[in-house]
Amino acid sequence: MGVFVFLMLPVLAQDEQVSVEETPKEVAATTKKEGKKTKSEVKAYVSPYYSYDDDGDSVPNGRDKCPNTPKGEKVTPFGCPIDTDFDGMYDYEDKCITVPGPKENFGCPWGDKDNDGVKDNIDKCPDTPGVLRFAGCPVPPKKDTDGDGVYDDEDICLTVPGIIANRGCPEIKAEEKAALKKAFDNLLFETGKDVIKTSSYSSLNDLAKVLVNNPQANLHLEGHTDNVGEDDANLTLSQNRSESVKRYLVSKGVTEERITTDGFGESKPVADNDSDKGRSLNRRVVMVIRYE
Length: 292
Known about the structure:
Layout: H1 24-34, H2 48-51, H3 174-186, H4 201-213, E1 218-224, H5 231-251, E2 259-263, H6 276-282, E3 284-290
Parallel strand pairs: 1-2
Antiparallel strand pairs: 1-3
């Protein structure tokens, strides 16, 4: 007995057409005829964020960290000009490309025109050799205003006769001398900073008590350093350390007006800077009681 298979085919409406698959050539011909672009004629979309290059340095704006680089300057992969000596000055504006220097001096190190050891940026007499204590100016002529045998440039009490041992100030009492010596011997700072170590507090407290109990006595503080580091940095550190001692004493009740400070950096050593011991002695804050 035979087997019959019935296939159900979709019924098409009158206006529907069944198209036979076209060959690639036919597709191309049809597309061209219809006025459409072929795949080869269509360009890939690129965001303006990555395609524009405002400063013409071949680094697109999308990753250019320095979009205003002058024309023709060599740049890094991120579009910034080259800084050969890493001093923060781009080579095109740096007058000393291979030597680091501050922007204030156009990327060059500060010089020393008069060869007196004081950099021109802090030298008030840049064309005349001088000393650091007088900001690069010559030491003034020797003068002794109060006639006590101590010249004015070393005399803490300019108008009151004193003794050489007390820097031109009157001789101090035994109690004051002991407090000064103890405070001086025990005064320590954190390395390279103007922060007083806590181990120094006790002796400074005793000095403060002596000053509070003797209101006629004033105190002068002088900061000094060794010769390690830059001159101007040492000068600043010495001044800041003497100011730190002043602030501490004022916090313990000594009137601010009774304490004066000064900083001399490395200009007045009391020992040789060629040894650890010598440098240690040169790092100090001198304390002088005076009556004025």
